[in-house]
Amino acid sequence: MSxxxxxxxxxxxxxxxxxNNYVNHQSFAAQPSYTVxxxxxxxxxxxxxxxxxARKTRIKLQNVIVDHTGTIQATVNTQKDATDLVNWNxxxxxxxxxxxxxxxxxxxxxxxxxxxxxxxxxxxxxxLLSRYNAEIRFLDLTNMVNDPTLVSQGLFSSASTSSxxxxxxxxxxxxxxxxxxxxxxANNNINDSNTYLSILGSTFPHVKNLSLQDNNIxxxxxxxxxxxxxTRLRELVIMxxxxxxxxMDRNYRSEVIRHFPRLIMLDGEYVRDxxxxxxxxxxxxxxxxxxxxxxxxxxVATNFLTNYLKLWDSSRDQLxxxxxxxxxxxxxxxxxxxxxxxxxxxxxxxxxxxSYYLSNSRNLTRISNEKSRMSRLAVGQxxxxxxxxxxxxxxxxxxxxxxxxxxxxxxxxQLNGIIVSLHGEFEETAAPVQPVQSGVRSHYKxxxxxxxxxxxxxxxxxxFGPNGAMIVxxxxxxxxxxxxxxxxxxxxxxxxxxxxxxxxAAGSTEISRTSTPLTHPxxxxxxxxxxxxxxxxxxxxxxxxxxxxxxxxxLMETKLNPEFTLILCEQSQWNYEAAxxxxxxxxxxxxxxxxxxx
Length: 598
Hints:
Elements: H1 10-17, H2 21-30, E1 34-39, H3 46-57, E2 62-66, E3 72-76, H4 79-86, E4 92-93, E5 96-97, E6 99-102, H5 115-130, E7 132-133, E8 138-140, H6 148-152, H7 159-176, E9 182-184, H8 196-203, E10 209-211, E11 235-237, H9 242-245, H10 252-258, E12 265-266, E13 269-270, H11 274-280, E14 290-292, H12 295-314, E15 323-333, H13 355-358, H14 370-375, E16 378-379, H15 381-389, E17 393-395, E18 406-412, E19 417-430, E20 453-464, E21 470-481, H16 545-558, H17 562-571, H18 576-588
Parallel strand pairs: 8-9, 9-10, 10-11, 11-12, 14-18, 15-21
Antiparallel strand pairs: 1-3, 1-6, 2-3, 4-5, 7-8, 12-13, 15-16, 17-19, 18-19, 19-20, 20-21
């Protein structure tokens, strides 16, 4: 039994359209349509985005395609739909703020590539560059609505062309990669419904000085369009607007200031103390790339990470020996943090670039169901290996590009262990061995993901078992869109400020390039105030990994310096028990000179 036609008039509609498909297609082609572009949608599917837009705005996107840059190109039926959609610029979708613009090539008939459109784009580019002063980083868009060249070409002849012109101009500004500190939008008839400010904030989020004077801004809520934008704005000029000359709301200044956390001057008057603002936004501690509680944790952490990442990139199954039946591993993706690159360029790869990760990501801010949370937590070697195999193969350049990584490590006395935290980046080199586990419900299943560079944070809780063996009790991996590693660029500090800080804590220590076994050098990592004579001397000798391990254990147990440690090990035929027994016997008899100790 067929239900076609029920509830939606399908049968009658099919009858009405029968035999008239050609006419309908011709009619559709003749209808004007307006092109919009949407960016920062990549954390979900195209269909999800279309449904989200329809649900939020009641606007239906048509002819939806994804271009080679990962940008959604779509059409809407009316200019009002296009304008209304641009007003939703910045709305959150799948953890990111959508960037919505109306394009100059705004009809659905392919005219974006026509000679007229090409000439218009060239005209806008010439206008943009003529208004840009690279020497003082100033973009002067004052009174552009009355610019003779633009007016003569009809770019402000109607509300329709005006609304398309500015997004196109900002798109060209992004393509030209203009470096701008100051922008003037004065005398452009900007009113409360105008979207220029929102589009400007998406293009130049870190502009420092902005003039909106001599416009038609009447209400303070106009500045809601730039919420979370212009985060570095220092000076704002809004004089000669109805808001400042006619408004009955005398509190408008405080409301305007509230939208710009770093604003210092409003209409030429100081509204905040610049020194206090700088202090608030300046992190109180100096930036370092490395922190180790002491030399023992430094040695354990660096040797562990060097060996671990080598196997992680080449043969993950060999890492299972480090995990016990109670060990836990999970990973999550966070596409909402940190903020995009300050240059304004998106570093998020195009397409469904997170599809390898989404099915097993344990982001607790996104997953509230207890069963789903527990199903994504791997416990024991078998589950951990399965989850390892769901992740793309990678390459970490820890030794080659140490400045791209930051490491912290400190003791964890409750478990007689240490915590090691690593931050940095990796390259995806190949698809996962097992991309999606069978039975996992996901609309990303079967979709192809692009391989790219990612940023990550990984935290290990390491405990020490019998004979100093390492056990990874907890392993947490956070994967993020790739961003530069400026966060841990070492900042200069006064020598006095470093009192009580070891050289490794100041970020001056390099990871040893000598690979040693993944074992702990001593059962008791606490060493009382070791002298700066480095145990790394043991790594510079021609020792086997097993001999290096034993020498470390003897050195930590006896507190002998490296030279006497090696002598003791050699005389004891590299037998740990014999070495300790010989040391105790000689020490009790007073046969060890004082300079033999660290």
